Amino acid sequence: MTATNDTELKSYIVVLKDSCDQNEFRKTIESIDNASVEKEFDIFKGYQIKLPSTHFSTLENNSNVMSIEEDREVKTC
Questions:
Q1: Count of the separate structural domains present in the chain
Q2: Is residue 4 part of a domain?
Q3: Please, which pLDDT band fits residue 14 given cuts at 50, 70 and 90?
Q4: Which member of 14, 20, 50, 55 has the greatest number of CB atoms within 10 A?
Q5: Residue 18 phi/psi, 5° resolution?
Q6: How many helices (H) and strands (E) does the chain have?
Q7: Contacts of 33 (CB under 8 A, 6+ apart)
Q8: Domain encompassing residue 66
Q9: Could you tell me if residue 2 is inside a domain?
Q10: pLDDT in tens, 27-76
């Protein structure tokens, strides 16, 4: 079994609630060590971010977050 590095940066898609101030939430992301906003989405209120995996639960439990998922490649059949 291989050990995982909990500080590894991973890419996530964060979808925000409609009531969230997107600029304020961006500041929340940028206040986390080694976290960054990679892309802001136009079709929904949210971001693609890079975040140390140790901070995933911080955003997952944030009251402004509707959902957060690891960004992965999607394939069609």
A1: 1
A2: no
A3: very high
A4: 14
A5: -55, -30
A6: 2, 4
A7: 52
A8: 9-70
A9: no
A10: 999 999 999 999 999 999 999 999 999 999 999 999 999 999 999 888 88
